[in-house]
Each structure stands twice: as structure tokens, then as C-alpha cells.
Amino acid sequence: FKKEYMPPKKIEFKVVHVTSEDEKFPASDLDSDKHGPLVHGWASQRYCLYPIDLIIQFNKKIVLKKVQILSHQYLIASKIEFYIGDSPETSDHEGSFESAKYTRLGYVELSSNEKTDLKARELKSVHVDAEGLFLKLVLHKNFLNRLNVYNQVGIIAINVIGIDLDDEINQEMLKNNDADPTVLAAIKRADYISPLDDLAFAMYQDADISQIIRKLDKKKTDCVLTERYDEAKRLKLAILELKKIGERLARYDIEKRQAIEEEDYEKAKIKKQQIQEYRKETYRQLQANNLLEFID
């Protein structure tokens, strides 16, 4: 089959409905464009009623392949159910979450997090295969712990991987019975998902560095397709190094924010200087290795 199949990718979405939210931690913080190390995420109201419905809408109808949930470290739901939503009215951008029909996909149970002393965030991944324009999460009652004094639940981030059904190539291939069976099978499975589309990458990488990594990764793919393997290898090594740099910059940024919250402004100043110097050194290295040409 001559046309190139577009593999599952990170899907853009916005939260369109939630039955409970803390005004300091709105559900809009879960929108796909908010991913990053400094995001606070969403939390329910104090002493809220359960279960809680949270509905996200994709920009276009998709084949949903994978959902990732990064739970709050102590505002933890005991269980989260997943439903895909669609209807004739939701076949375009005018669809409403209220008129959609929802089909249950399954559920996940979360850890109480007592073993990590309520410090670590749990990342849950769910593999599915369903078409729709909406994804509804139903969150059940929280775990009781010493830090969750108001019986809330919270989610730091949601990530969705899927196939864009509005993509002309994918639509044609799905409808074409004569297409390569191997390619058709690939469409129906999430065999390969780019590590750059994984939630862990988005949440623990400096935003500027992550954009550079994405550009270099695209260039690396182009090099492989044109059989320029030495160049592809050089870009691969550069990406691996940049991932370490991005993680360190993100950590500095988090430490700076914590210092500000604690009103330790001297420490915040030091962290700001570290970030500036480290970022400047990174760009110097990119220039020395002749990589800036790929990211302009």
C-alpha cells in the first residue's frame, strides 16, 4: 500500500464538563495543552458528592487507543471508570457531551499510596480500542488518609493516544478491503507509540527543551527514511542527552516554585540563575554540535 499510515499519536482535548471542582484547581488545568512539570491539575470540591463525572472532548472524532492518568499523590480516587461517547450529533464539531451516548470501556483501581508515605504520584495506563468524540471519567470515593482531610480526589494530568479518524489516509485505509493486512492490523492496534507522546515525557521535561527534542526527532525520522544513518545516529545521541537536560531544568523549575511558595526568595534567585546558566550552556552545546540548524 503506497500511502503512509499515520500511527497513534497524542490527541488534543479540552475538559467540557465536571460535576465538582475546587476553584483553586479547576478542571481546565487538565486540558492537553497544559501538560508540564509545574501543572497543579484538577481537584474536586471539599466534601463533594461521589461519584464525580469528568468529560473531555477531542478536537475530532478518534479511535481511542490508550489513556494515561497521573493521579494526585494523596487526593486519590479508589476507582476510575472510563466511557467513550459518540452519537450522530457528535460526528462534527457541533456535537454536545449531553446528547452523546456513552459506552463503558472498563475501570482502574488506584493505590492508596500509603507505601510511599503519600508522596509519589501513580501513573495508570489503560489500553482500549473504541471510536468517539468524548471520554468520560467517573471517579469514585477517595481513600482516607491524614493529608486528605476534606475527602477530595484529584488528577494531575490526563493523556490520550489515538488515531485521527478525520485523517484522509487513515479513513481510506480503514475502508479499503484491499489494503495491506499488516497495515490494517497496525491501525487496529497501538503497537508503537512514540515515547515523546507519553505522559511521563510531557510532565517531567522542560517545555522549551521538549520542543527542541520533538524537532530533532522529526529530523531523525527524515534521516532514516532517506537512509542517512550517520546523521540519524548523531541526532539520536543528541536527543538522549537533551532528555537528561530537560529533566534537570524541569527539576530546577519545580524547586524554584517551591522556594517561592515557602518565601525563600534567596533560594528562588539561585534556582533562577541555575536555570538561566544551564539553558545558555545547552544552546552553546547545540551550536557547537551544529544542531541549531535543525530547530530554527
From TrEMBL:
Domain Centrosomal protein CEP104 N-terminal, chain residue ranges per copy: 41-162
Coiled-coil features, chain-numbered ranges: none
InterPro entries recorded: CEP104-like (IPR052607), CEP104_N (IPR048739), Galactose-bd-like_sf (IPR008979)
Pfam family, one: CEP104_N
Gene Ontology CC annotations of this record: cilium
Domain of life: Eukaryota
PANTHER family documented for this protein: CENTROSOMAL PROTEIN OF 104 KDA, GLYCINE-, GLUTAMATE-, THIENYLCYCLOHEXYLPIPERIDINE-BINDING PROTEIN
Listed name of the protein: Centrosomal protein CEP104 N-terminal domain-containing protein
